[in-house]
Backbone:
């Protein structure tokens, strides 16, 4: 056990990251009351933010993390930003509305992986609300996203979900979160078909990890063999939630493969490998979220749960120890084994993705530690 006081330390560290991201990056959209969105960089003026590329899927993971904070608020009774600020459960619905507003009054876009991530986070918010009246607007959003994802699941290339509306590339980034969305919404047969396609098409027999995708080039399929941390996370969760002996055996193998191939040594324990800045700045936070799910899953044997737990805790500990102060908020490194002061020197612009990643890792650690105490 890495934290001397696993309950307080893990919760407090997750809260510190939550306060940092919401304070440093959270803002109204163009000054409009009742809106809430995360800027993609800090510092960045509102005008400059509107001119930046629209990072839809970063907002989806911000929403997921706000749901984590809301669950922690519910458990501890402590507002994550103090009683003078809106609670996470109040910010999250504002964020959903603002994503639609910023996305030109709709929730769909060109990228099916983006839509799958938003479907997952809105689905969690839908479950959190608990009130049928409050669920209605989310149900409509979910129906819209679900229809888009269903349309992207075809028999071309043997199955799987297209990456975008060009429909020439099917990949793990879209198929894995879509499979997880489908199992959570009761479409278990579709979810299993997508997992089976991933196992048959993109599972690397040498590493036991999932490769990136299959692209149509000059009319013929071409394998994209790159391996990224985040692709493993939603596959793992889908395997766990589908259950059954074959899926659970594959989940055990996947946890072991992550430990063997997607970690860096250099500290007391191996930490999860990261992918720098930009979109890659989110990748390992996503994996940590679903490793935490494996760590607390009674469906997995204890050695697999322990491996998942150790990976999450070691990464969280390294990020926390390497943090720096930037004004009144915590600054986290892009790499767990490098100090934040090195990866983000004084005066440099900080990207939302990297700080959101740290928040996700620390939330994952809090979930694991809380489960240890409750168990």
Residues:
């Amino acid at each position: 056990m890495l934290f001397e006081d696993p309950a307080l330390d893990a919760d407090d560290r997750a809260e510190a990251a939550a306060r940092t991201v919401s304070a440093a990056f959270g803002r109204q959209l163009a000054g409009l009351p009742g809106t809430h969105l995360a800027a993609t960089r800090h510092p960045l003026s509102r005008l400059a933010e509107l001119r930046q590329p629209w990072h839809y899927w970063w907002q989806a993971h911000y929403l997921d993390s706000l749901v984590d904070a809301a669950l922690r608020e519910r458990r501890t009774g402590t507002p994550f930003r103090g009683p003078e600020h809106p609670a996470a459960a109040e910010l999250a619905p504002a964020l959903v509305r603002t994503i639609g507003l910023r996305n030109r009054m709709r929730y769909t876009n060109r990228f099916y992986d983006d839509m799958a991530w938003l479907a997952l986070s809105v689905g969690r918010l839908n479950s959190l609300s608990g009130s049928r009246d409050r669920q209605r607007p989310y149900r409509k959003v979910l129906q819209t996203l679900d229809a888009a994802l269903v349309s992207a699941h075809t028999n071309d290339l043997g199955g799987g979900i297209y990456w975008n509306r060009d429909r020439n590339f099917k990949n793990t980034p879209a198929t894995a979160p879509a499979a997880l969305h489908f199992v959570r919404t009761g479409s278990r047969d579709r979810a299993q078909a997508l997992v089976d396609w991933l196992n048959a098409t993109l599972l690397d027999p040498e590493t036991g990890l999932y490769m990136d995708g299959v692209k149509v080039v000059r009319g013929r399929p071409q394998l994209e063999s790159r391996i990224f941390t985040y692709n493993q996370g939603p596959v793992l969760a889908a395997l766990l939630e589908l259950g059954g002996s074959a899926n659970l055996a594959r989940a055990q193998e996947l946890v072991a493969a992550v430990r063997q191939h997607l970690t860096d040594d250099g500290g007391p324990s191996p930490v999860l490998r990261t992918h720098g800045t930009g979109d890659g700045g989110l990748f390992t936070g996503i994996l940590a979220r679903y490793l935490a799910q494996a760590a607390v899953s009674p469906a997995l044997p204890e050695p697999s749960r322990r491996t998942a737990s150790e990976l999450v805790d070691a990464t969280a500990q390294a990020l926390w120890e390497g943090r720096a102060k930037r004004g009144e908020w915590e600054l986290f490194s892009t790499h767990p084994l490098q100090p934040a002061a090195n990866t983000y020197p004084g005066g440099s612009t900080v990207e939302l993705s990297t700080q959101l990643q740290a928040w996700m890792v620390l939330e994952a650690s809090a979930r694991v530690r809380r489960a240890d105490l409750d168990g």
